[in-house]
What does this fold into?
Amino acid sequence: MKAAAILFHATAAIIFFQLVLGALFVFGFLDSAVHVIDGIIVFGLAVSNLVATVFSKPRFRPTLVTSAVLVALIFLQGFLGFAAFESNAVVVVHFTNAMIIYGLAVLGVFYARAWNKLTVGSVTPS
It folds into this structure.
């Protein structure tokens, strides 16, 4: 299995864990620091996923686009998260973006599984 495909699986799992931590924070079962620290870990994992996808052969455009959009949305999610501390209205946008990020991560897992089945000769050069 390609390293980028493994990273897609790990990213989706950590993002799901981040959603659980966010729910625990909202309902007062845990401090916001744990959610913020895991968010930083998720962003670092998404960036490493993008780097691994860019340098992997054969190139598979759906995984590359998914990785790039995932990094952009997680970066936006960080700003929304810190803005949510100031305004309750931003929390809804923060949660909606989180659901989009999780859906994109799951989509990336399916793309990575398809990408993992490709051989170098089966892809036409672009």
Observations:
- The chain has four helices and no strands.
- Helices lie at 3-26, 32-55, 61-84, 89-116.
- The chain has a mean pLDDT of 88.
- Residues 7 and 48 are 8 Å apart (CA to CA).
